[in-house]
Structure to design on (275 residues):
């Protein structure tokens, strides 16, 4: 088969998670387009607004040389990003809710300033804006995703993957997120991956290291799910497992039914709504 990235099925940790929660939610988030504008749709919430703003700060740091990363207070970078999610644009119901989330974000970037750890050391930056590789040329499937941080480890000439968490709960240990990132890093840059970690910015002063995944088993799971997604797209078959919809698809159905408020368009060109 001739490789054609425009006809390929692109999968990511986010889209795989959507499909595992509910095929209908996957469809509405990743396939459906507003027939009036031909744009995809997305929902905004206070938690997403917080995560987006903190990750904007980290993305800014990743583009700077080590000596320049903390020349400017990170609170200034955060406040600039927060302007994009103020009020209804961030899904906030009132000023108090917005204030509480904004303060949590300021506390997180203050933690990074006080305990920069790996962010004060060399990092590897993948050249692609959206890192991707062919998961299967035969099945025409591409795996893609953005890794928060690749810390360079000079002693072993390798990298450690760091994913930043802004929520209050630990990631499921069975999550495919880090295995997917290990596969992406292994196929889009030259350094071997020798460490993986989550950094829970709401509470921890440093990343929490995790054991390296069984990549053979993870790759099989990722490929099997990706094939199911590709087949569902081919057959246009995306049904919720519940008759009246589930927690994953019902909010998106409300957008399609016109029961949500449009608050803007995001950097991916998707129409952003709040309930």
């Amino acid at each position: 088969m001739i490789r054609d990235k425009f006809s390929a099925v692109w999968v990511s940790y986010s889209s795989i998670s959507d499909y595992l929660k509910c095929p209908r939610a996957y469809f509405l988030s990743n396939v459906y387009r507003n027939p009036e504008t031909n744009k995809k749709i997305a929902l905004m919430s206070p938690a997403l607004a917080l995560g987006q703003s903190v990750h904007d700060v980290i993305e800014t740091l990743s583009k700077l040389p080590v000596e320049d990363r903390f020349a400017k207070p990170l609170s200034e970078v955060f406040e600039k990003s927060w302007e994009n999610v103020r009020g209804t644009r961030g899904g906030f119901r009132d000023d108090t809710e917005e204030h509480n989330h904004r303060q949590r974000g300021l506390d997180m970037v203050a933690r990074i300033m006080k305990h920069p750890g790996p962010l004060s050391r060399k990092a590897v930056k993948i050249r692609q804006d959206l890192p991707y590789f062919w998961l299967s040329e035969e099945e025409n499937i591409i795996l893609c995703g953005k890794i928060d941080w690749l810390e360079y480890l000079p002693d072993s000439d390798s990298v450690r993957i760091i994913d930043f968490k802004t929520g209050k709960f630990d990631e499921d240990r069975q999550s495919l997120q880090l295995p997917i990132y290990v596969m992406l890093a292994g196929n889009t840059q030259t350094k071997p991956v020798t460490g993986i970690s989550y950094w829970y910015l709401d509470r921890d002063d440093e990343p929490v290291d995790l054991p390296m995944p069984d990549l053979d088993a993870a790759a099989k799971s990722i490929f099997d799910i990706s094939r199911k997604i590709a087949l569902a797209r081919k057959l246009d078959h995306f049904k919720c497992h519940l008759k009246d919809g589930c927690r994953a698809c019902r909010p998106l159905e409300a957008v399609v039914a016109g029961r949500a408020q449009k608050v803007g368009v995001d950097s991916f060109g998707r129409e952003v709504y709040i309930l």
